[in-house]
What does this fold into?
Amino acid sequence: MVLFAKDIVETEFLTMPPQRSVLEAAKAMATRRHGFVIVMSPEGTPIGIVTEWDILAKVVAPGRDPAEVRLQDIMSANLVSVDANEGIDRVAKLMAQDGTRRVLVTKDGKLLGVIRVQTILARMRDYIDSISAQIARAQLPIF
It folds into this structure.
């Protein structure tokens, strides 16, 4: 049993254009209970991500007006993404190497969703339990 990115991708995520204000994004994030927003180009491709931490560190702490600050001003543009058919071992490795908490999942250049570190940890536990059970069954005597 091999798990792929497409098997654990979360397809519900929040997207907004880069010109949207941080205040609007924060309200939408709070309403939908999301800890991040993916910033999308007019063509519909992801160009950045803004997290709760970005809002705290780049807007609230310095005392900037969230109604005046745009997502494009505080977004992180170094997105980490994988193809939907990548194994979750590769996703986990990317997360561990870069300290990334969210990996975008794409198929044929289209954004399918996001894998969060919480999701991969939970699924990896289930995966390891399943593999352990298979190994235990394989070690039982045939008769």
